[in-house]
């Protein structure tokens, strides 16, 4: 296994952390009888010779010894070694790495018949990637399929045939293999896998009844799968994360492949999801919930039916399924409205879910109540009022309440009370105040002006969070129409980094353009990029009263970052009313930066018939099947809401033409 290892000048080679002189010891430890030593060696190799997927000269020197280890049946955990080799050769962009692994490709041919099923499962994909001769590779896979008896290895063989078909489209015999495997008498899991690979490689070879056939196969597969109980126990972060993973990863992969292949065929995917979400098996439904989330995030489609079905999963004792449904619905904000009845029923029945406290840390708003609130449903109000009256308010509660908009008005007295009790000398004042300001602004509570003024007057302008608090307080007063009560404070801010936001509030307070125009022009000319964008937006609010700013706005619209040009162009229209210098800026920005499309569409709606030259952009946007900026995690809900708002603005533009 290690013949020649001492002849390599490892000290002269490099890896992610310097000299590779420690590498031979790690390679030898991969053959250790001690599981901890083997795992430590593997982790060490990923962290040095293959750190973050990179390849070094020491990585190339490792390949022959890794292949020798993988071929030796007495070495434990060889599947991990095969996975490392595949990662080095196939997932890195270094052509030398691919050739180094390819030079030992015959190792993977031998592993197709290895006694260890885990190794056999890892081998087919490696054979496709690293063995020369496409005809021979396909023949190896085709002959191995009838000889294999392990279901999971058979699935890997089918996936490898699909990979081969995509890499070598001229070898259509691979499609014949997939077609044969997608039919009886093969088992439902194997047939599903073959259908998914066919959908990726040759959609024209799929059966006409693909979606209903896939649903039938899924249910047949589930009927014969062993049941795994969803154990109760103390809630921990690790346990919650595990519950939020698919409980049947193999089934999830089969259906995920099919969804990926269907791509923009959102209607077919919705039908497929409907079949998954109505499966008798909770594991299938759990997988479907996560696949529904992928569809909702990335595609513009009528999701009312699948959202309602996701909501139906809340009425279950299957904790994993319920938590998955809650998590997905919380991302959807207003799109989760078809599930609001189910969310309300769960919140009403389970007060223990109103808040959640991890083993360590502050309480947060519980998932079901958070999801209900984000739909904008006023039925959340009584529950939120009780939470707000508690001794400790969940972190960020005000940001969630803001989703209710003006319907949150009944909570305003309690929000004002909380805001007025924040110690102004607290280092956490911004963290405590920001959510409350957001909620009061959304509720339109002008009675909160005294509490906001207290906050603003007592918050010295200094770097860090307190500076952000000043801007938030000014914006809240401005939005609530209460800026007139803060004129002295606002004037004092005109020579600070909050000059632009203070100038906009002053304009709202007294409409005196002479006081704010010089300030906004200064910020537009000399401010940081974000300040320049804000100054342009504030100038646009002044309308014709800011005509003296037109030359500087034209310059800003013609050069600089795309978002700055967009803000300046919007201001040009609001001030001068001439679409000619504005529309070319909008057309260029629309394609250069999809995130500018929201503000551009809102401005086009204000242009009315003058926006006609850009009708093609708006029409194409409404016809586009995908959301442009879909992300996962904490930002997913924001991106969905922004995209839905963009579509609404586009419809408004067309209606006004």
Describe the structure.
The protein has 657 residues and is an all-alpha fold. The protein has a domain at 579-657. 64% of the residues lie in helices and 1% in strands. The protein is built from 36 helices and four strands. The chain has a two-stranded antiparallel ribbon with strand order 1-2. Strands 3-4 form a two-stranded antiparallel sheet. The protein is globular and about 85 Å long. Residues 230-246 and 461-465 have low confidence and may be disordered.
In the predicted model, the low-confidence regions spanning at least 5 consecutive residues are: 230-246, 461-465
Tally of individual helices: 36
**Strand order in space, largest sheet:** 1-2
Task: Summarize the main sheet.
Answer: 2 strands, antiparallel
Task: State the helical fraction.
Answer: 55-70%
Structural class: mainly alpha
Whole-number average pLDDT?
Answer: 92
Rg result: 30 Å
Strand-residue proportion: under 5%
Number of strands: 4
Large-scale geometry: globular
The span between the termini is: 75 Å
């Amino acid at each position: 296994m290690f013949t020649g290892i001492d002849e390599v000048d490892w000290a002269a080679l490099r890896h992610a952390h310097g000299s590779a002189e420690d590498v031979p010891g790690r390679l030898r430890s991969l053959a250790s009888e001690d599981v901890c030593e083997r795992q430590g060696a593997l982790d060490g190799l990923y962290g040095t010779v293959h750190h973050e997927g990179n390849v070094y000269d020491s990585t190339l020197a490792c390949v022959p010894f890794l292949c020798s280890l993988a071929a030796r049946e007495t070495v434990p955990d060889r599947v991990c070694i095969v996975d490392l080799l595949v990662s080095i050769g196939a997932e890195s962009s270094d052509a030398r790495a691919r050739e180094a692994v390819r030079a030992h490709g015959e190792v993977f041919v031998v592993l197709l018949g290895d006694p260890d099923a885990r190794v056999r499962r890892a081998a087919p994909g490696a054979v496709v990637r690293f063995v020369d001769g496409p005809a021979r590779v396909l023949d190896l896979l085709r002959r191995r399929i009838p000889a294999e008896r392990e279901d999971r290895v058979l699935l890997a063989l089918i996936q490898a045939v699909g990979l081969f078909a995509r890499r070598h489209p001229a070898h259509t015999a691979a499609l014949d293999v997939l077609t044969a495997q997608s039919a009886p008498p093969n088992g439902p899991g194997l047939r599903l896998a073959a259908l998914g690979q066919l959908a990726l490689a040759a959609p024209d070879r799929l059966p006409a009844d693909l979606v209903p056939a896939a649903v039938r196969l899924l249910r047949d597969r589930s009927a014969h799968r062993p049941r795994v109980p969803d154990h109760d126990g103390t809630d921990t972060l690790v346990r919650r994360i595990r519950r939020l993973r698919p409980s049947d990863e193999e089934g999830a992969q089969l259906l995920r492949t099919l969804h990926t292949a269907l791509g923009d065929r959102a209607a077919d995917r919705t039908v497929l999801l409907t079949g998954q979400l109505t499966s008798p098996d909770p594991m299938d439904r759990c997988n479907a919930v996560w696949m529904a989330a992928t569809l909702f995030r990335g595609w513009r489609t009528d999701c009312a039916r699948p959202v309602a079905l996701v909501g139906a999963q809340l009425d279950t004792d299957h904790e994993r399924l319920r938590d998955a449904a809650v998590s997905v619905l919380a991302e959807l904000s207003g799109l989760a409205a078809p599930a609001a009845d189910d969310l309300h029923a769960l919140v009403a029945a389970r007060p223990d879910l109103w808040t959640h406290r991890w083993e360590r840390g502050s309480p947060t708003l519980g998932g079901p109540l958070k999801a209900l609130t984000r739909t904008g449903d006023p039925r959340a109000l009584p529950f939120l009022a009780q939470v707000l009256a508690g001794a400790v308010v969940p972190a960020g509660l005000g940001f969630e309440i803001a989703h209710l908009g003006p319907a949150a008005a009944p909570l305003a007295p309690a929000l004002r009370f909380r805001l007025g009790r924040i110690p102004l000398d607290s280092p956490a004042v911004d963290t405590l105040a920001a959510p409350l300001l957001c909620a009061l602004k959304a509720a339109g509570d002008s009675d909160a002006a005294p509490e906001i003024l207290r906050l603003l007057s007592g918050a010295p302008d200094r770097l860090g969070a307190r500076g952000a608090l000043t801007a938030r307080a000014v914006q809240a007063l401005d939005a609530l129409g209460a800026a007139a009560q803060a004129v002295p404070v606002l004037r004092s801010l005109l020579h600070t980094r909050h000059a632009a936001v203070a100038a906009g509030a002053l304009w709202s307070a007294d409409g005196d353009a002479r006081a704010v125009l010089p300030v906004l022009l200064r910020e537009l000319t000399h401010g940081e990029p974000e300040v320049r964008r804000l100054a342009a937006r504030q100038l646009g609010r002044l309308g014709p009263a800011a005509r003296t700013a037109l030359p500087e706005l034209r310059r800003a619209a013609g050069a600089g970052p795309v978002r700055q040009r967009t803000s300046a162009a919007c201001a040009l229209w609001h001030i001068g009313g001439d679409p000619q210098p504005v529309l070319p800026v909008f057309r260029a920005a629309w394609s250069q930066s999809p995130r500018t499309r929201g503000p551009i569409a809102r401005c086009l709606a204000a242009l009315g018939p003058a926006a006609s030259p850009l009708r093609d952009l708006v029409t194409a946007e409404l016809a586009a099947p995908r959301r442009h900026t879909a992300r996962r995690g904490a930002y997913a809900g924001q991106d969905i809401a922004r995209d839905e708002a963009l579509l609404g603005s586009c419809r408004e533009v067309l209606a006004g033409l």
